[in-house]
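**Reference record**
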Amino acid sequence: MTIVTLLDAAHAAVSADPDNETLRLRFYERLADGEMFLLLAKEAVGETLDPQVFELEMGPYVLVFDREERLSAFTGGIAPYAALPGRVIAGLLKGQGIGLGVNLGGAPSEMLLPPEAMDWLAMALDEALEEVEARPESFHKPLGLPDALLAGLDAKLARAGGLASSVLLAGVTYHGGRRGHMLAFLDADAGAHAALARAASEALVFSGIDAGEMDVAFLASADPSAVAIARVALRFDLPAVVVAEPAAPTAPGMDPKRPPRLV
C-alpha cells in the first residue's frame, strides 16, 4: 500500500498549481513543522551532527526524508540519521550555501530545494517578535480574516494541548484609535509563552497576508479583558492532554500478552 504523507499532499497541491503562493507557503509550513530524518555521514556524538553532504552539479546538498522507511530505501539499508523538526534543519543550513534534497528515491514529494529556499524558510521562521504595550479600549468580532490564517492557527494550536486552557481571537481597538486583532491565550503556562507567541507568528507568516499583524496576549480566565474578549471572540479549544494511568500489577501468567518467565 502506498502511503501519502502530509508533505506528499502539500507537494502535490503545489505541483498542480505552481503559481499559487498560498499553496507554496503551506508546503514550506509542512516542511518546517514535520519531523524529518536527516541522513548523517556517521553516528551523532552528543549534540554534534555530521550530515552526509552530496556534491551535485548545482552545489552541495544534504538529504532528509519524512519517513524512516524512505531513508532506508534510499540508502539500501541501515544508515545513521538524526530525527529533527524541519525548522531546526532550516536553521542549521541558513547561510551555509547548502541545499536540501527531500525524499529522494522516488517518493511523490521528491525534490531539491536550493540554498536560497532554505535561507528564506529560516528567515521566515525567525521573524522577530516585537513586544509592545498598548491599552485596549474595546473588543469586537474578528472580521475579514482569511481562511488560510484560521486554518493555520487551528493546525498550530492543535499541538499546544495542555499549554493553555483556551485561545480567543477577537478584533481590538486600542487607546489612540489603532485597530487590529488579538489572539489571547488564557491561563497559559508561563514557560510556554515564547513558544505560543512563535506559533501564532508563524501562522500569520504562512497565511500569506501581506504586512499582516496580530497581537498576542496572555491572560487569566478571570481577567476583565479576557471576559470582555470572550463575549465576541472566536474560540479555539486546545486538545486535552491524556495522561496514561500506570498499569495495575498482575500476577505472573495472568496477562495473555505477557507469558510467564521461564526459570
User: Anything to note?
Assistant: The domain at 6-125 is CATH 3.40.1350 (Trna Endonuclease; Chain: A, domain 1). The chain has two domains: 6-125, 136-236. Confidence is low (pLDDT under 50) at residues 252-263.
